[in-house]
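User: I'm writing a short report section on ligand binding and want a predicted complex to refer to. Could you take this sequence and tryptophan and write out the structure as tokens? A short remark afterwards would be nice.
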Amino acid sequence: MEKKIILTGDRPTGKLHIGHYVGSLKNRVELQNSGDYETFIMIADMQALTDNARDPEKIRKSLTEVALDYLAVGIDPAKSTIFVQSQIPALSELTQHYSNLVSISRLRRNPTVKNEINQKDFGQSIPVGFATYPISQAADITAFKANVVPVGDDQEPMLEQTREIVRSFNNIYKQDILVEPTGYFPPKGQGRIPGLDGNAKMSKSLNNAIYLSDDEDTLQKKVMSMYTDPDHIHVEDPGKVEGNTVFTYLDIFDPDKAKVQELKDQYRQGGLGDVKIKRYLNEVLQAELKPIRDRRNEYAKDIPAIYDMLRKGSDYANTIANQTLKEVRDAIGINYFD
Ligand code: TRP
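Assistant: Sure. The structure tokens for the complex follow:
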């Protein structure tokens, strides 16, 4: 049987944080290691440029940071193809063809883009490229005929939009060329991690993130500064566990569920101080992140090797995307000179 195909990726606008890790990187590594899939992982620099056109240097710098983060968590270039979106010209042409199949009102309804537009303060100047990036994301996914897309659950609307494009394309051109993808999401309650300040979203712009590349001291300082229960003032006071960031993190990261339950009970009763639970969380996180950080530092010693890996990945990705583009052009009937 032919292997199923995975395509996924991230926008390089900085280093990746543990929100990315629990939201999708962990799943990707697991799927890669299952051996059941051919995996493509794309650094989505074109998508990142849609709202950073005036700051390309930021994207350029983030390219190798994201690649290092991938290698650090265990994405293995011997098993997965890691490539760079801007190096695959077929994606841009596919985007152009698909844009004829999507209405402006449909794009405006995409809740992920809507949210992002609200957050980003574009005012009256929403870049066309930004507003239409779901179409380019459909090109990314379909160029590789991906069956499975492991991402955070905020990306579901992108997959819905992609499936609609696939159905319309196959329907209009009476072909079965494009493949409808399914999302692959983390287990319920495990895929979304709040920021250090308790904000529902961990993000660079909110300055509340723990990065995979943070060193031991930085990690510890961040953990000790975390939001807990603002009404838990004295050690003896009973504390709240719900909405307490330290416990939310423990639920996600600590494999010792019985221990977490014990700490929660104690905290609720009173007599367990914030410093203690933070110290404990620090140990749990250091244990999880140390091997990742060590591997990252190792790979970071040879940046030319990173570019080399990305070039090889992009060369291979081009052969696949060009083949799909040829089929798409054939279906539309614009390969006049073949
Ligand atoms: N939109 C994704 C993000 O927010 C990145 C991305 C671009 C992507 N193209 C993709 C993810 C294709 C999965 C599949 O970072």
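A remark for your report: The pocket of tryptophan is lined by residues 7-11, 44, 47, 137, 140-141, 149, 151, 155 (CB under 6 Å). The chain has a mean pLDDT of 96.
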